[in-house]
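Support request, priority: normal
Reporter: lab tech (M.K.)
Component: structure prediction queue

Hi team, I submitted a job for Spermidine/putrescine import ATP-binding protein PotA from Streptomyces alanosinicus yesterday, and the status page still shows it as pending. I've pasted the exact input below so you can check whether something in the sequence is tripping the parser. The sequence length should be 389 residues. Please let me know if I need to resubmit or if it's stuck on your end.
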Amino acid sequence: MTTPDNSGDVRLSGISKTYDNGFTAVQPLDLTVPQGSFFALLGASGCGKTTTLRMIAGLEDPTTGAVHLGDQEVTHLPPYKRPVNTVFQSYALFPHLDIFENVAFGLRRRGIKSVKKQVEDMLDLVQLGEQARKKPHQLSGGQQQRVAVARALINHPKVLLLDEPLGALDLKLRRQMQLELKRIQTEVGITFVHVTHDQEEAMTMADTVAVMNAGRVEQLGSPTDLYENPDTTFVANFLGTSNLIEAEVDTKNGDDIVLKAGGGKLVLPEARCSAPTKAGGKVLVGIRPEKISLTHADDAGDIPEGRNRLTGKIADASFIGVSTQYVIDSPVCDELAVYVQNVERDGRLVPGADVVLHWSPAHTFGLDAAQSLLAGTVGSAGTEEEAAA
Ligand code: ATP
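Reply from support: The job had stalled in the queue. We restarted it manually and it finished. Here are the results:
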């Protein structure tokens, strides 16, 4: 029986980083990135994600803890002795060399003479075979970044580290390159660790995302898991938009918790609640804007039984093509966000209209209100921009 290849596993055990000025950028962190996965470290500026990446690369010494790549401890190895390569936001290509020679550089430095086949294969991988004899300044930003990726991959690293590699590109090119990088990772099959502050980028590309906040990983999981089941208000607001409604635990009903919010009741599956569920305890009830349906108050009788419901008044409505984004004032929460797909638009849903918001209890999640207050992260319907600020 063959043992599985784990040489591309990245294992961080209790690593932390306190800089010389006494500031701790990364709190002791345990993390395993399995071989062959596309892993994203996601967080706002200053949360410690680049420092974490640099400790994996060997560009920064951890203050405590150990870094393993596969079974090999590399904590004190210099960068060039680690089986990793890093791609930075600044492509750092050699301007005087053409694209072929930029990609060939690593091989030539190792004294390899016949580089043609390898370089051509690598240029094909990043779809730049036609551009081989151009100089970097003759390429677009996205093409230059693909050269940087090819130049890193030609060394056959076990792990490719990407530090905001798309940060310098405009939005459209960024979106194209996200898909391109994902394709390249699937094709080469090595571990990618990608640092970004862009939640959409992390969710588009990565199998697993670690959301960092103030030097700690707040939550780790698949993009779907983080989005559908956030554990903290930080994650709920950093990944997309969440409506958070303050409520009090009333009773339990089978697998559900019944909560009091304003004068009404809301139902939450207990399995989707990360807060203590003792009667009288405070819970923040979370619901994503696109999970809510909006019904004019005159038609409230048509809403099926068993749905969570709140009353409110439309404060604002923005038509943005694919959907209409409403802001609703409700007795339990100001400014609830509701996104309704523009399929059959109800002309009565305009500012000033009385409405009922309703959704399936299965889409509801529960967060610890006390912890959120401590962390200063309570806020309804936080926007991505606010979360990223
Ligand atoms: P960004 O996206 O802005 O790069 P980041 O999440 O990658 O942010 P880091 O670069 O890891 O954050 O920095 C984390 C914190 O450590 C920041 O507050 C930063 O100011 C601080 N820091 C980084 N390098 C040093 C240093 N050499 N000395 C002192 N503090 C530092």
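Residues 376-389 have pLDDT under 50 and may be disordered. Residues 242-388 form a domain with the OB fold (Dihydrolipoamide Acetyltransferase, E2P) fold (CATH 2.40.50.100). Let us know if anything else looks off. Ticket resolved.
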